[in-house]
Amino acid sequence: MRRTILPRPGLSLTVFLLWAVITNAASLGLLVLGVVLAIVIPLLTRHFWPNPPRLARPWRALRFLGLFALDIITANWRVARQIIGPLHRLSPAFVEVPLDLRDPFIATLLASIVSLTPGTVSIDVDRQRWVLLVHALDAPDPEALIREIKERYELALREMFAC
């Protein structure tokens, strides 16, 4: 019964919390509407969600979230300095990152993580060649960027999901 009404409890909780924060839900009506949305949205979209792999090592996920938060802060600072500084010093580049992982869900998660880090945007995950195409605002050494993505993010995801 619970899975019928709440097929994705985590998603329902996330929708409700985001609704409460975005609307500054101070009234009962807004909270009730948030609950309705938290139930209806996952029900309407349940057929679109893949079965994500299980998180095998949650403690590594917590460590990774801390590292990722620090990376976002430092990347924001670095990008702000680059944009304020002389633009001719930037070396924008498209970089192909070969992937060792083969799970489409985790590859998409990696692409999202790369896009959330300021200064880089994931363009495509090529599932034929298992390559992540990334555009970097400043990549004077594309090989260093590839190593950073693989060592800091891909390896951590593979450890967390045991794949």
Give a brief rundown of this model.
The chain is built from 6 helices and 3 strands; from the N terminus they run ααααβαββα. The chain is mainly alpha-helical and 163 residues long.
Order of helices and strands: HHHHEHEEH
What is the oligomer described by this structure? single chain
Q: How many structurally independent domains?
A: 2
Structural class: mainly alpha
How confident is the prediction overall: mean pLDDT? 92
| Order of strands in the sheet with most strands | 1-3-2
Outline type: globular
Tell me the number of strands.
3
Largest sheet: number of strands, sense, barrel closure: 3 strands, antiparallel
Low-confidence stretches: none
Estimated helix fraction: 55-70%
Number of helices: 6
Q: Please give the radius of gyration in angstroms.
A: 19 Å
In whole angstroms, how far apart are the ends?
A: 32 Å
Strand percentage lies at 5-15%
